[in-house]
Amino acid sequence: MNLLWLQSAGCGGCTMSLLCAEDPNVFDLLTDAGIDLLWHPSISVETGAEVRRLLARIEAGEETLDVLCVEGSIVTGPKGTGRYHMLAGTGRPMLDWVRSLAPLARDVVAVGTCAAYGGVTSAGGNPAGAVGLAYDGKLKGGALPGDFRARSGRPVINVAGCPTHPDWVTETLLLLAEDRLAAEDLDPLGRPRFYADNLVHHACTKNEFYEYKASARELSEMGCMMEHLGCVGTQAHADCNIRPWNGSGSCTRGNYPCINCTAPEFEEPRHPFTETPTLAGIPIGLPSDMPKAWFMALASLSKAATPKRIDVNAHSDRLKIPPGAEKGGK
């Protein structure tokens, strides 16, 4: 399976994340799976004329393109020309290259939320006109039409995340190499369901605090961050706490709230990331399947029943009272 990777408008963080893949590392994984990396601007040794010749062969149909991976948003400005972002040495905008190469690929993969939906590079006034491959925020239709289909018949596969987990990328590529990723394996936003059918809340190490609504008030504290610190892990589609980053980490495990970076328009929540907006004292960011009346009743009961150990630890930056200590244990 031939793979071409283009880096468009973004920070390159998804490539940095991909290089953290372990057991095996990304290079061994691609080799063992029979995936030939035709070119990656940050990894490959080919430059200049060599790359231009490769792109020309692909456009001419002389080189098979199985998977086109795009990292970073696609810049459409000024006035839809895309000339704010030229692919160096080619004299052509990245927008033009994407529109030319995508129909030639068996599959197209948007690596990261910028490539999927526009992401951070589309925030604010978005003077560059940054969009995703097949989405502009939550709206279908980005650099490519909303109904775009690759040669396989599949839509753009949105491996969203900011950055995306290395395993999400490698698992997607392995599934494509085996032709085992069907349309029903993607959620309504084009994300692979093997990670998007989970919530960041699942396996979160703060779930005991969540159950008792023992809430942290500052970022250094161990308690649940939903009530005061803006955590939306109960709504965010990802398995970050099921398959931790680098084997042990996640945002919430680092005492930072989940900001739902796998979702379109996460970059503009219309409030500070570390603050929870409320309405009549009720957090707006409740789990989507929890009625507000239930939350109020459950929160009151939970807070009243909170063990001292949990209450003390929730407002500490380290474990103060271990389990069993309240019964005389040491």
Query: Taking strands numbered 1, 2, ... along the chain, how are they ordered across the largest sheet?
Result: 2-1-3-7-11
User: Which spans of ≥5 residues are poorly predicted at pLDDT below 50?
Assistant: none
**What would CATH call the architecture of the largest domain?**
3-Layer(aba) Sandwich
CATH fold-level label of the largest domain: Rossmann fold
State the gist of this model.
With 330 residues, the chain is α/β, with parallel strands linked by helices. The chain is built from 10 helices and 13 strands.
Written overview of the protein:
There is one protein chain. This protein has 2 domains: 2-196, NADH:ubiquinone oxidoreductase-like, 20kDa subunit (Rossmann fold); 199-319, Cytochrome-c3 Hydrogenase, Chain A, domain 2, CATH 4.10.480.10. It is 24% helix and 12% strand. The protein is an alpha/beta fold and 330 residues long. The chain is built from 10 helices and 13 strands. The protein has helices at residues 13-18, 26-32, 48-59, 94-101, 113-117, 166-177, 193-196, 207-211, 292-304, 308-314, and strands at 2-7, 36-39, 67-71, 74-75, 86-87, 92-93, 107-111, 130-131, 135-136, 139-140, 157-159, 278-279, 282-283. It has a 5-stranded parallel beta sheet. The chain has a two-stranded antiparallel sheet with strand order 4-8. The model has no long low-confidence stretch (mean pLDDT 92). The radius of gyration is 22 Å and the shape is elongated.
